[in-house]
Amino acid sequence: MTKAAIKPGTAGAAAPAAAGGFAVYVHWPFCLAKCPYCDFNSHVRHAPPDQARFLAAFRREIGHMRALSGPQRAESVFFGGGTPSLMAPETVGGILDAIDEAWPLAGDAEVTLEANPTSVEATRFAGYRAAGVNRVSLGVQALDDADLKGLGRMHSVAEALAAVAVARAAFDRVSFDLIYARPGQTPDAWAAELARALAEGCEHLSLYQLTIEPGTPFERLYGAGKLILPDDEASRALWDVTQEVTAAAGLPAYEVSNHARAGAQARHNLVYWRYGTYAGIGPGAHGRLLLDGARRATLTERAPEAWLACVEAAGHGIVEDTALTAAEQADEMLLMGLRLREGVDLSRHAGLAGRPLDDGRIAALQADGLVVRAGDRLQVTAEGFPVLNAVIAALAG
Length: 397
Known about the structure:
Helix content is about 40%, strand content about 25%. The protein is an alpha/beta fold. It folds into two domains: about 20-270, TIM Barrel, CATH 3.20.20.70; about 325-395, Arc Repressor Mutant, subunit A, CATH 1.10.10.
């Protein structure tokens, strides 16, 4: 692993076509407040960041990554964070212009922006649409005001639902997130909350089980016994309700935590899960690029101001560059691909690993009803998804 070790490839040479597609991730690292459950690379600043300066830096890093990747056509762009909806629409538009110049956007490219559902941020939605965003993902997180307060969110249920309505008027494609397995949450209460969410008519829902992440305020509260989460049995009941209610409404799970109507899957995330390649732009952004036929993992400087200084001095903020071994690539593909209902292509996995998965391990998991083989694909079953980590460990070990 070396700092800034990547060297640009031959100018104008076409990059090898990568299975899974090519995408661009842009990280905006700033938030108005840090949620107590969040371990993302997000930062609170008392003074607003200089967006013109950051835009110039994003442009420079995009140019550097383009020199590394060679010509590509971007299938999707995702603005994540942090809180990207704190950006001015002009900043978003400037970044998209730079991306389109570097990696021409496909005619049907998906361009997603994560947003908080506050009334202030909702006023920017029309501007984002004009800038080129065609999909928005709203961090609603709960449809219960007391739980929103407990999660450290800055909006109410009424404000969130109003923002969803504004988003649906501005964008053809709208998704929002909810967190379940919250303290004291019952299956009946969660079923009612899901029904209310589904009544909004959005095409996509991301439904995440609350987990305790290292270094967060929730970890400290949990360790002190001041935060009590549902036990394994209660969490499984909440999982089952999630699958039943969404499937009945026509939004079955296509990935462990993501549910969509037919054809409305998040195309950007599918690039990750199908083990495609992507450029990671901005503070703390991860990337996976094919360089001279080798798959490399990139990571940029996490601290926003340090990243900015790196880009202004060197044209990029890359601090880690790792050539992935065949075994590492195969493990990553398995880790990502088995999250999908469609599973993984066993031939492709064997090509990366240099050997097929162990038939005995697959057979043992099949006997337990945790996986199935469908032609040349290996898929996790409905019973296997709640214990997905154990399934992956059994296959990759």
